[in-house]
Predict the structure.
Amino acid sequence: MFSNFDFDIIVRSLPYLFYDGMTFTLTLTALATLGGIVFGTMLALMRLSGIKPLSMLAAGYVNLMRSVPLVLMIFWFYFLVPYLGQWVTGASQPIRVGPFVSSLVTFMVFEAAYFCEIMRAGIQSIPRGQVWAAQALGMRYPATMGYIVLPQAFRNMVPVLLTQTIILFQDTSLVYVLSITDFLGAASKIAQRDGRLVEMYLFAALVYFVISLLASHCVRLLQRRIAIVR
Amino acid sequence: MIKIKDLSKWYGAVQVLKGCSTEVAKGEVVVVCGPSGSGKSTLIKCVNGLEPFQKGEIHVDGISVGAPKTDLPKLRARIGMVFQHFELFPHLNVTRNLTLAQMKVLGRSREASLTNSMRLLDRVGLREHANKYPGQLSGGQQQRVAIARALAMDPIAMLFDEPTSALDPEMIKEVLDVMVALAQDGMTMIVVTHEMGFARQVARRVVFMDQGEIVEDAPTAEFFGKPRSRRAQTFLSKILQH
């Protein structure tokens, strides 16, 4: 049944697919994860702060982000951020940010909502006594969080954070709607150019599948190794 | 040194402390005992402000714990506390458990903190475990590290919240030995414990609590010799039987 297919196209386009496409996908995944965890941790601290306006603001943000489709967010940011930039800086023209920065910002603010919930669970998993012990030693809130609670929460949550990163890795393929050359975008362009849709999309699916599978296997291995001995 | 006056605390509608008053002088060791749920732990957590209270006053070294303008972290740094479940920081090794607050709270240099930590680990007999993590130590060893961690801050007083209750019987002595030595060095201590042997040996006074009240506050010999209240008599007969 594959007699009409030309799998040679894949070999010929490998440099483009991986050097251009996959590099972008992995860069976006890594930076968005980093930014998302930092921003998400801040949101989690706000939610747990016990200061009503702060926790309500963070909760509202998380709920909003989790109820909007990601594709919509990508579009919305791409077309809105230039005007937002113009409004903030008072420039005469919309600020051009380019598809990479726009999609990076989108993923950071979107994924932060999910990372927030993970970090919140992580922080809440730390026994009350740990906070007491830090406070009894005279530590203030920033030191208690920074040296005692967050490092333990983060370590407890590494497997879940990485699992979320794998989902993020798959979600980055949605930037193809901005005609960005991520991995799927690259595959898609070659597919359209040469009329080899089935081959390219099969191959793209296979690559996403293998990478995700390997990554989740690594997470499982890691999970066993990093558990804190209590 | 520590003055508790007419202290009351509520959890919602439930009153857990009812007008407690007592004093601990400098260098004095006071044991707080009583049946579980009597408010002992809550009482000593009020002393360094870990638990807020609604009525009454606590003064530590002349500073009011309940006053809104009191810098609680600064005050807490001067009061050592040891917990029932040790509460060592499991992600940090023993040395780092001891040096962290010295450096971050007292602003000591790394060298000074290390020297001080090693001296205290020597004192509790755990120097060779300096690089281990809490999870690699026995309960008794962890509690001794916790005592050293509190002492590293050069506290003016020490609070012990059932320090041996979570320990296996064979480890209780090693912890009590450290505490006895500390008491004999003249440390001001409030100790919540069921270890009546310890109370007899080093306590100047025994405070007996029941249902959120201080029922009896008497010199040690008097408390064990002829407790005045019925409740203390019942408690002692139960606890001293075995």
Notes: Chain B touches chain A through 30 residues (CB under 8 Å).
